[in-house]
Design goal:
Helix content: 40-55%
Oligomer: single chain
Shape: globular
Strand content: under 5%
Number of helices: 9
Strand order of the largest sheet: 1-2
Distance between the termini: 60 Å
Largest sheet: 2 strands, antiparallel
Structural class: mainly alpha
């Protein structure tokens, strides 16, 4: 019952094993011969800065909703994956010589900092938050990461190379799934072009 892209990722892993088996002559016929993998393009949901501010500034009467909102906003402004937010501990916060704080986190779990509920509860409460804030988008824990990449970083001029590094991606191709070309960033770039051309013409 997996989605197409998930099946393809599993098949690619299996293909590596069959290629190894072929190379070592453990099998004689390639079971993947003539098979091509085609991933479907997925439209990834993200929040605008205005929507993030609406959630950030909203007062909730229930503590459980407030905690989930705080965790979601934290993830939206750090770009951490849900599992990394859930496992964040004090040792992962380091200060450089200039007094700047950095999150340096390998994936492991002990002495966690934030009271993060399980993913299922988070997503359930995030639906409530979206309703209470008048946001019609489908809010999940992963939307925070997309919002960070798109509305917080790329829309404010952070290079895709730096976004890739902050998201922990090994190459820019992975980051391009998150990257949306926003009208605001196109406008900003074209205003720069206009400024340069008006000086030279």
């Amino acid at each position: 019952e997996c989605q197409q892209n998930t099946v393809i990722r599993y098949m690619k892993c299996l293909k590596k094993i069959t290629n190894l088996a072929l190379a070592n002559e453990w099998i004689t016929k390639d079971p993947f011969i003539g098979i091509k993998f085609h991933e479907k393009e997925v439209i990834r949901e993200f929040l605008t800065l205005d929507e993030l501010h609406r959630i950030y500034n909203k007062e909730f009467s229930l503590d459980r909703i407030t905690v989930v909102r705080d965790v979601f906003i934290f993830a939206s402004f750090t770009g951490l994956a849900f599992s990394d937010v859930q496992q964040l501990s004090a040792e992962h916060i380091v200060q450089d010589n200039n007094g700047n704080y950095w999150i340096r986190k390998p994936r492991q779990k002990k002495n966690v900092l934030l009271p993060v509920p399980c993913n299922q509860k988070m997503n359930s409460y995030l639906k409530e938050i979206a309703d209470l804030c008048g946001i019609s988008k489908s809010l999940t824990t992963h939307v925070a990461r997309h919002s960070y990449a798109t509305s917080v970083c790329l829309a404010n001029g952070v290079s895709i190379e730096n976004v890739a590094k902050m998201l922990g991606h090994s190459n820019i191709k992975m980051t391009q799934h998150y990257a949306r070309v926003l009208d605001s960033s196109i406008l900003k770039d074209m205003m720069n072009v206009k400024s340069v051309l008006s000086k030279s013409l």
